[in-house]
Design goal:
This protein has 445 residues and is an all-alpha fold. The chain has a domain at 1-142. It has 16 helices and no strands. Helix 13 runs antiparallel to helix 15. The relative contact order is 0.10. The protein binds protoporphyrin IX containing FE (2 copies) and fe (ii) ion. One protoporphyrin IX containing FE (HEM) binds at residues 114-115, 186, 190-191, 238-239, 257, 260-261, 298, 302-303, 306-307, 309-310, 315, 319-320, 324, 327-328, 331-332, 335. Fe (ii) ion is lined by residues 187, 191, 238-239.
Length: 445
């Protein structure tokens, strides 16, 4: 069954497409600055570009998750969204808060806390926005006929993500305390509750695309949720090693965070196993690529590259270097960017009635962006290891080291160009699909 209110999802996805484009522009500004071409410095200093780049990332991913929920929940609960109008108001207010925050960063209206730069007054607007979103989702779910495991895991992830935003809003005068609670947001989002959101969307996609029984797929989902919580919660300790939080964290953080890749491995095995078990008849091969891709690339980017620097003996050297950026890129890309691109690719033909999934452009978008991102990851990694060696082992001064590693950013820019070509093709495809219509949804039912 399809529901007319699912159309709302399209506009959240469109906002995502707009914001990812802006995010990439700021990525290039930083890439060139690292190469020594920091010509925009007076207008957009590096720290501003960095905050804009990472915040836009978070907002476009959240906008995508919201769109995904507005599409998935009606279908799973067998109920139209309780208020489409309110959902549009929520979309517009999300866009407005995003614009104010990003413009503000250019005028020093921000808090210098990585990822949580949004000033506290704006945080309250975010809270109202997210409460509206959750209100619509929860009311629809409870009014509906069914409450499937897939829908419950997705909703649970969204509710917990909202709750975990709050510790980042507490005011501390103490740097260690502030850092301690900042990680409740940053770590427990990406290595905890966002994994539930990802698991929920992945499960929905696998049910639709592979045709395997819901019972089988949802059993796996329980295992993944279990693994995520067992490892991820105490895994937060891998950010507490040397911030003044106590020595116990060296052991607790080391052991539990080293177990975190298991949840991502679980997801990769799960997706591949369901694909092999399934009928392989679904025509939307592009959506299948992104779905299997996200399960596999997230294991590499988050699981393996996370593991690479999670032990205290390693993190002592790599903390806050380009090794972190190496992992940050492939992890965010593999897990949360790709799952968004997967759900968008799956829903577009249903929302618009146009079936463009046989085009070469879609496949090219997938491969160019993935190979490009893999190349960027390697470039960051090589630069990062060189940085650690010179700066942390040989004791060379920070600025000197940055000059030595400029050459790696030439490679980064080349790979980023390939990546961007892929994203441009993806967005071109998105535009070509056109806008959603009631007729399309009725026909897809
Ligand atoms: C999809 C999941 C993940 C995403 C999106 C992600 C992303 C990130 C990002 C952006 C940072 C930098 C944060 C900051 O400095 O504010 C970071 C740090 C870190 N991540 Fe992950 N990560 C993920 C999963 C993992 C996993 C599973 C592990 C361990 C096995 C891990 C280990 C680490 C470590 C040790 C750091 C600290 C680096 C440092 O000290 O500078 N991450 N991650
Ligand atoms: C053209 C594409 C891109 C370029 C050139 C680029 C470049 C950069 C640069 C130079 C940095 C700063 C590293 C530093 O602190 O010195 C950065 C940070 C970051 N970028 Fe990108 N980026 C691009 C796309 C992306 C995408 C698509 C994602 C996510 C899927 C992403 C996620 C991040 C994250 C999470 C950080 C912060 C990393 C950390 O905490 O260490 N970037 N990017
Ligand atoms: Fe973490």
């Amino acid at each position: 069954m399809k529901y007319k209110s699912q159309k709302v999802a399209y506009w959240f996805f469109a906002l995502s497409m707009l914001l990812v484009s802006l995010q990439i522009i700021y990525g290039f500004i930083m890439g060139f600055a690292h190469m020594g071409f920091d010509n925009l410095h007076e207008l957009i200093p590096f720290n501003t570009a960095r905050a804009v780049h990472t915040n836009l990332l978070v907002v476009w991913l959240l906008s995508g998750f919201m769109g995904a929920a507005y599409y998935i929940i009606p279908e799973e609960a067998e109920e139209e969204l309780v208020s489409v109008k309110l959902a549009y108001v929520q979309l517009i207010s999300l866009a407005i808060v995003g614009v104010i925050a990003v413009v503000g960063y250019h005028f020093n209206y921000w808090e210098g806390r990585k990822f949580l730069e949004i000033p506290r007054p704006l945080d309250w607007l975010v809270v109202v926005n997210v409460l509206t979103f959750l209100g619509i989702i929860l009311a629809t779910l409870f009014k509906g006929k069914k409450r499937t495991t897939t829908a419950m895991v997705l909703t649970m992830g969204l509710v917990f993500a909202a709750l975990l935003y709050l510790p980042g809003m507490i005011w501390f005068d103490n740097q260690t305390m502030d850092s301690f609670f900042r990680w409740w947001v940053v770590h427990l989002w990406v290595e905890g509750v966002w994994e539930l959101i990802m698991g929920g969307i992945l499960s929905f996609l696998l049910i639709k695309i592979t045709g395997v029984d819901r019972e089988v797929i949802e059993k796996w989902l329980y295992v993944i949720v279990g693994l995520t919580f067992i490892s991820g919660i105490l895994g937060t300790g891998h950010h507490y090693y040397y911030i003044g939080a106590g020595k116990t964290w060296l052991l607790v953080g080391g052991i539990f965070s080293a177990l975190e890749p298991l949840a991502f491995l679980g997801m990769a095995l799960f997706a591949v196993a369901m694909y092999r078990k399934g009928e392989k008849k679904h025509p939307n091969k592009i959506a299948l690529n992104w779905t299997l891709g996200t399960a596999i690339v997230s294991f590499v980017g988050a699981g393996l590259l996370g593991l690479a620097h999670t032990l205290p003996q390693v993190n002592m050297y790599t903390h806050g270097t380009l090794v972190t950026a190496m992992h940050g890129h492939l992890a965010f890309w593999g897990a949360y960017a790709m799952i968004n691109l997967a759900i968008i690719s799956y829903t577009l033909p249903n929302l618009t009635g146009r079936k463009l999934y046989d085009s070469n452009r879609g496949a090219l978008a997938f491969w160019l962006s993935n190979i490009g991102m893999l190349g960027m990851t390697v470039a960051f990694g090589v630069a990062g290891v060189a940085q650690v060696y010179m700066e942390r082992i040989m004791g060379v001064e920070f600025g000197e080291v940055q000059k030595e590693i400029q050459v790696h950013f030439f490679i980064l820019i080349c790979c980023a160009t390939m990546f961007t070509t892929g994203i441009i093709l993806y967005i071109a495809e998105f535009v070509k699909y056109g806008t959603p219509s009631d007729e399309a949804l009725v026909a897809a039912a």
